[in-house]
Amino acid sequence: MRIAFTKPLFAWDELEDSPSLTTLRELLAALPDGKLLDSLRQARGKGRDDYPVHVLWGVVVLSIACRHLDVEACLAELRRNAGLRRLIGIEQESQVPHGWNMSRFLAVLGESPHRELLHEVFNALIQELGRVVPDLGANTAGDATQLSGRVAEQSIAAAEAAAGLPQPSGGRKEYTDDAGRVTKVVEWFGYKLHLLVDVKHEVALAYEVTDTKAGDGETLPALLTQAQANLPDDRIQTLAYDKAADTNEVHAVLSAAKIKPVIQNRSLWKEEHERMLPGHDGNSNIVYDEAGTLYCYDRVSQPMVRHQMAYIGYEPDREAIKYRCPAKHEGWECPMSALCNGAKSYGKTVRVPREIDLRRFPELPRATKKFERLYKGRTSVERVNARLKIFWGVDDGNLKGSRRFHAWVGAVLAVHAAFATLLASAPRYEGGRSQGTLGKLRLSPIAQALRERVTSAVT
């Protein structure tokens, strides 16, 4: 791949619709799959080796990378494409595996410890990207998406459940408007895929597969722990999520990790619109709403007027959010100023300790432009989900059994991380195509570091 110098580091729109043999060779080389293949070979032991493990694994990777509709389509192409066969170590057409060989291989790949080693392939790629890309994971966003699946035979499903693998089940998700009315209902049978992604670069940092009953808030702490292990210490600064993660447990976990929550609050107050700030009596004019936004009342004017107080920052030492008189902050006259501010030229200030309610008073208040900007970063998860589903077939829907499903999802996420590595390490050209040339190619420091890792891994 050759990408313009002006393109982002992870230029996802530059991925080839039909990857060349060079790109596929680089993709296979970028996958740190040595431990996984060794484990699979040991599991096979001295059994028949008509189709070596590296060949079967190569078929899985090519099926995903070449965007085939299913594995059978990839096998058909391998039978007629000698160059593609040689790429994964197949010398003759007769050595191309059959569909049932691939089905059995996926079942084995989804067993422990191979399943965990497959996840380690993804983790190793993200860890390397985290080391060389200084802002990868600084601002993150999470979400869950539905994936279709099929249940295995009863005996196999019971063995999978005993091994701790979630089984496919019926799922239902309702979408509501601001008034609480249901506007859309989505139903499916299968699983849920939970992702934590980098907002800027749209790279998945962690993933987890669960049944359809698992809540987003329940899964998020484990997902966050995985992402933290894949990134340098204290890299994650913010985490955006929808209302599903608005729980006391999630906010406590984020607060302990010093991560700013960018989570919209769930509406739980049925009749109240505002409450008096704790520590203030009936003589105070300071209140807050369910989202944790502070207001002050001008009680001199008739009728009384409510003004949103000006957020002026967070004080880490006190773990308190600081607000200021909006009139003094914005430079307008308030009839209540003499009573509130007295002789203070700076105006009245209010500090809200977060310990009052971590969920209600996040470090970055919801009624700020920065919160709104960061919350829009959640759309990055939707774009990552779209690539995983549309381009690389994570939502195949034809895989029977939880072992095969987990193996396929793990392989798709590994290919996603490998493609991210290729994009970041691709040479960039300067100059104009209008002059009949791609211009001068050069490698960025990040690309050089990644290429050195791939070279050392191959040698």
What's the layout of helices and strands?
Elements lengths: L2 E2 L16 H10 L3 H11 L8 H13 L5 H10 L1 H6 L11 H11 L4 H19 L6 E10 L5 H9 L6 E8 L5 E17 L5 E7 L5 H15 L7 E4 L6 H9 L3 E4 L11 E2 L9 E3 L5 E5 L6 E4 L1 E6 L4 E5 L1 H5 L6 H5 L7 E5 L15 H7 L3 H13 L10 H24 L2 E3 L9 E3 L2 H14 L1
Report on this model:
- There is one protein chain.
- The protein is of the alpha+beta class.
- It folds into three domains: 3-120 and 403-458, no CATH class; 126-267 and 375-380, Nucleotidyltransferase, domain 5 (2-Layer Sandwich), CATH 3.30.420; 275-359, no CATH class.
- It has helices at 21-30, 34-44, 53-65, 71-80, 82-87, 99-109, 114-132, 154-162, 216-230, 248-256, 326-330, 337-341, 369-375, 379-391, 402-425, 445-458, and strands spanning 3-4, 139-148, 169-176, 182-198, 204-210, 238-241, 260-263, 275-276, 286-288, 294-298, 305-308, 310-315, 320-324, 349-353, 428-430, 440-442.
- A hairpin with a 4-residue loop joins β12 (310-315) and β13 (320-324).
- α2 (34-44) packs antiparallel against α7 (114-132).
- The radius of gyration is 27 Å and the shape is elongated.
- 37% of the residues are buried.
